[in-house]
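Write out the 3D structure for:
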Amino acid sequence: MNLLNVIEDLIRFRTETGNAGEIDKCLAYIEKLFANSGAIVEVCRFDNASPVLFIRNCEADAYDVVCLGHLDVVPADEDMFSPVVRDGKMFGRGTLDMKSFAAVAFNSMFHVLENKLPLKFAVILSTDEEKGSKSTHAFMEAHPQLRARIVLDNDVGGDISLLVTKCKNPVFVKIISEGKEAHGSTPWEGIDANEKLMQTWMKIRRLYPYYSKELPSPRDKWVDTVHFAKICGGDVANVISNHAEALLDFRLTENSTVENLRKNLDACLEDGVSYQIVSESTPVVMDEADPYILDYKKFAEDILGRKIVFEHIGGATDSRSFALRGSVVIMHSGTGEGMHAKGEYVEIDSVEKIAEIQTRFLDK
């Protein structure tokens, strides 16, 4: 297959999360791409989740290597779905996150098939990663025996010189504040749910400091963080709000627990304020001395001609589902900028290098 042509084709599909029609067109394109290749291509569909693409070179429960990722993207203007190549970069929605690396996974599958490598190999791509990965959870529940010795995860985009070995645990918490309505001119006759919410928030903020580009960066960035993702309270300007809600996005290191988070939240609540854990997961923590990771790192350094540095990130990854089942997860991606932004791009050379690193690693 022609790697760059496939990337451009994938980007032209407007696979924004939830855009079922475009997602199905993209899946049909991929099925056609693998026609007569010898690969088993299955679109797994679920009642309450979007599809998952499952490509493999054999029927198995235990695979040697799985490439894991997603095909959906965040919303963008129409022109971002027409890829542009300029100055060694490809611009467009999904170039970095992560259609370029879905194409790399396809390239690896063709390499395994054409060279008849003695590996049980699979590619698994979800279609709603940008909104919680419900499809990945449904897929894993439908395949309770599925295992992989190694998972190649390219959904950590940004810098090819970094090999990620730790990802934090994303925990989303809804704060609910209840009050009592009153006229805005007589606040002493009501209880302001907005005020209660803010008082609770300020207590939380004392435990989890505020970080900003306008402030000095912390010396140690491997710390628990939280940001105010959404807030809603009040309907009419001159009425004391009787209900308010906020969604908080916590990112916890492997040194923290959800149980401890609950204790901290319990200590911060004002009267009339409660919370719900909307979703939680586990951190992904890999041993930097693992032989597979060191092998991969050596191939990457040889191909790039420079040292690769281990990195820790706060972002989430679907590979945690496999990490919980004992997989060695190798998190590495290409170089680019503008993920989820207007000017998203990937450096083409970095994509080609990732493809070469993967095939060399699979050969080993």
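The chain has nine helices and 17 strands.
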